[in-house]
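Sorry to interrupt, but I need a hand with the structure work. Could you write out one complete protein record for me, on any chain you like? Could you add the entry underneath, on a fresh line?
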Amino acid sequence: MPESETEHLDYYPSGWSEEIHDEYYVEWICDDDQTILVRLDGTMGDGDYTVTPITGVNMDGEEFVTKPISGLSRTEAFNVAATLIYAMNGITGRLNGEDEFTSGTSNKS
């Protein structure tokens, strides 16, 4: 697993990239599909961090944003981001039929 360059996250899953735009704005992007990502935005100030899971982009280039989680402290935001990164990684791994996530069985037909 790659080591995070951030202060609150130790590692993130292989197959993901970490883009640190600045200390308040970080994205973790799925390497297989770069429209799948988790965005941490603390540009509104401490105690007002938002974590947004993004699960795709439509034909107009608009991100498909699932429910953002707002009003978080910096530490809470990194904890939520880590949970979402690992959850989204597990889902994409399972949908891709990767043995690590399917116990060697696949639901693909």
Summary: DSSP finds two helices and six strands in the chain. The mean pLDDT is 92. The chain has one domain: 16-97. Helices lie at 74-95, 99-102.
